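Standup notes
- DV: blocked on the single-chain target, sequence here:
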Amino acid sequence: MQTNLAPEYANTPDGQAAEAILRKCVHCGFCTATCPTYQLLGDELDGPRGRIYLIKQVLEGQAPTRATQSHLDRCLTCRNCESTCPSGVQYGALVDIGRRLVDHKVERPAPERAVRWLLKEGLTSAAFAP
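- DV (later): unblocked, structure below
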């Protein structure tokens, strides 16, 4: 997939890594067959191929929205899509980069930030360790 990185990402580690991953994608759509969120929701933007397009748009300079953030959030990061990709696209690494870039530009509502913080701190707290 040809990508023209925006100047703000062109010489960054995330930009270069994402571009290398994007170049491998041939748009075949095999990934959608194994994606749980695509199977459940049936929305192209809630599958790996759609999310790849969203991340590509951000890397090319389009401003991400809350909708972009929501589609990326719905990825379970199960990486089932990687097992069916004939091109070897490292989708897990790409979605991690995409989430970082979008979260840097799109502010989450305060209640959502609070819930996410509580889940992160609660689930990683030593108090809950076995």
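- Follow-up: The chain has a mean pLDDT of 93.
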